[in-house]
Amino acid sequence: MASGVKKRGKLDLGILASAVASVSAATFTGDAAAAAAPVRLTRQTSDCAHLRAVVVNAGNANACAGKQGLADAARMRLLTANHLSLPVEQVAVSSTGLIGEHLPMAQIEPGIGVAAQALSAGASGDFAVAIRTTDRHAKSGALDVQLAEGVVRVGLAAKGCGMISPNMATMLCLVTCDAVVTAEA
Q1: pLDDT-derived band of residue 171, with 50, 70 and 90 as boundaries?
Q2: List 29, 80, 96, 170, catalytic entry
Q3: How far is CA 84 from the centre of its chain?
Q4: Is 170 inside a domain boundary?
Q5: Is 133 in contact with 58 (CB distance < 8 Å)?
Q6: pLDDT one-digit tens code per residue, 51-95
């Protein structure tokens, strides 16, 4: 959805959520300078093996924003968890965009509610658009893989694919799969 963080009504906020209990894995930047508030909050306090949702805003990275940045990331996570009736530990937060500015929470807070209400299986293209910053094109995909056990569906959305250096820097890549796997796998 367009919360108003980006100008001219561009999509800038999205939620990716699982309707059922799930297992997950997360990789974060190892670069201390690139670890913005959402990265630190999610890495330190989320159950990254059992995430059910991620809320992402674009247009403001919530990086170099001090204690206020951590508070804003925690607020985004809490609001998302509340709207989806999930424990906060099962929600991850990501932000991408300008560095060194506080998030415009007056725009993001109602946007989270709108995004939560608009969740649908067919909105993956909008999600991929909403999470991008300087990428010229949204990066998303989906495929069905036929296995002996049945069809497995895989979906993905990414931004900043050229921003993987150094050490996962500012790249976001979210992959979903409906295969039944263990947290260890």
Answers
A1: confident
A2: 170
A3: 15
A4: no
A5: yes
A6: 999 999 999 999 999 999 999 999 999 999 999 999 999 999 999
Report pTM.
Answer: 0.91
**Domain assignment present for 161:** no
Crossing angle of the two packed helices 105-117 and 66-84, in degrees rounded to 10: 20
138-165 residue pLDDT tens: 889 999 999 999 999 999 998 875 555 5
170 catalytic? Reply is yes
Asked if residue 177 is part of any domain, the answer here is no
Residue 172 CA to residue 164 CA, distance in Å, equals 9
- Beta-sheet pairing, 150-159 with 172-177: antiparallel
- What tokens does 103 get? 């998030």
Helices (H), 46-176: 66-84, 105-117, 124-130
- 113/78 Cα distance (integer angstroms): 11
Q: CATH code at 104?
A: 3.60.70.12
Query: Domain residues for 111?
Result: 13-136
Does residue 80 lie within any of the structural domains? yes
Whether residue 169 is predicted with pLDDT greater than 60 in this model: the reply is no
- The domain total for the chain is 1
| Calpha distance 185→175 (Å, rounded) | 15
Q: Using CA atoms, how far apart are residues 78 and 58, in angstroms rounded to an integer?
A: 18
